[in-house]
Design a protein that fits this description.
The complex is a heterodimer of chains A (119) and B (107).
Chain A (H helix, E strand, L loop, with lengths): L2 E4 L3 E3 L5 E8 L7 E7 L5 E7 L6 E3 L7 E6 L4 E6 L8 E8 L8 E2 L3 E5 L2
Parallel strand pairs in A: 2-11
Antiparallel strand pairs in A: 1-3, 3-8, 4-5, 4-9, 5-6, 7-8, 9-10, 9-11
Chain B lengths: L3 E4 L2 E4 L5 E7 L7 E6 L6 E5 L3 E2 L7 E6 L2 E6 L8 E7 L6 E2 L3 E5 L1
The chains are: A mainly beta (119), B mainly beta (107).
């Protein structure tokens, strides 16, 4: 069955960067797009961007364009998101999710990675 | 960006009651709409896609409908396991955007 397994929680200092992972299994990695979604505590969901594992092509929400960098490692079926210049506003749960190339709703989600930014 | 205005923000209902949540899109998104349920401490789960299609494994008491740019999620007979937060999402154009959420509680 399809699984997206995310890396564990991270405690980082303001100004630092964090890189989180999303390991896919149960399907052909290059057949689906990987998206990243932010959920601040008690808040709604924000789409950060997606990466096409086949081509490496990316599409970012303008709000996160200078903040997030998406990459993939096809050999390990793993997607990565690096978040830079962290502030307290970046403390949140970050989810990876996948969609088809045509239909951009998310049938499968990772369990989430909690990022806490604190000195 | 397409704005998704969801209402109500919170809702208290009794078991077996009919529950309806709505989402208003700021522009035409056709049937490019999905609904998710999120339980505390869990990832969102896809309920409805294409505005009206039921996702795999979702009970038939859930249904989706559309009238112009207004979309509705209906739970025909509320069960205990339906408690959680519900979100709509437009999948018409990037950036994909979500509604603010509806917190559903038992009365």
């Amino acid at each position: 069955q399809v699984k997206l397994l995310q890396s564990g929680a991270a405690l980082v200092k303001p100004g630092d960067s964090v890189k989180m992972s999303c390991k896919a299994s149960g399907y052909t990695f290059t057949d689906y797009i990987i998206h990243w979604v932010k959920q601040s505590h008690g808040k709604s969901l924000e789409w950060i961007g997606y990466i096409n594992p086949y081509s490496g092509g990316t599409n970012y929400n303008e709000k996160f364009k200078s903040k997030a960098t998406l990459t993939v490692d096809k050999s390990s079926s793993t997607a990565y998101m690096e978040f830079s210049r962290l502030t307290s506003e970046d403390s949140a749960i970050y989810y990876c999710a996948h969609s088809s190339y045509i239909y951009r709703w998310f049938a499968y989600w990772g369990q989430g990675t909690l990022v806490t930014v604190s000195s | 960006d397409i704005q998704m205005t969801q209402s109500p923000a919170s809702l208290s209902a009794s078991l077996e009651e009919i529950v309806t949540i709505t989402c208003q899109a700021s522009q035409d998104i056709g049937n490019w709409l999905a609904w998710y349920q999120q339980k505390p401490g869990k990832s969102p789960q896809l309920l409805i896609y294409g505005a009206t299609s039921l996702a795999d494994g979702v009970p038939s008491r859930f249904s989706g409908s559309r009238s112009g740019t207004q979309y509705s999620l209906k739970i025909s007979r509320l069960q205990v396991e339906d408690i959680g937060i519900y979100y709509c999402q437009q999948a018409s154009s990037a950036p994909w955007t979500f509604g603010g959420g509806t917190k559903l509680e038992l009365k």
